[in-house]
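PROTEIN DESIGN WORKSHEET
SECTION A - STRUCTURE
LENGTH: 99
TOKENS:
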């Protein structure tokens, strides 16, 4: 039997995406995926997973431009995973729950 685990939120080809005040806890895979988006702003996000969670990437960003992440915290089980390419990051904190 093959289990397919999906991310909590996935956005494709969005222009002007705004996410504000979301709190994600223990997603089965990555928490948020941003793909082929432009001018996205993610503000005051809290992403948390326990240390024994498998493959819990915080935010995966691909083929996107002008992505801003502001005043957010990412604390995931595997390691603080994040893509910095084509992003503006303001007051973002990471922590790892590996200990």
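SECTION B - SEQUENCE
RESIDUE ASSIGNMENT:
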């Amino acid at each position: 039997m093959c289990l397919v685990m999906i991310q909590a939120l996935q956005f494709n080809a969005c222009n002007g995406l705004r996410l504000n005040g979301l709190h994600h806890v223990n997603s089965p895979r990555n928490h948020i995926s941003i793909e082929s988006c432009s001018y996205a702003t993610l503000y005051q996000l809290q992403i948390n997973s326990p240390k024994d969670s498998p493959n819990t990437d915080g935010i995966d960003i691909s083929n996107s431009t002008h992505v801003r992440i502001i005043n957010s915290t990412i604390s995931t089980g595997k390691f603080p995973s994040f893509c910095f390419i084509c992003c503006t990051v303001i007051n973002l904190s990471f922590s790892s729950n590996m200990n």
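SECTION C - NOTES
The longest strand covers residues 65-76.
The two ends are 32 Å apart (CA to CA).
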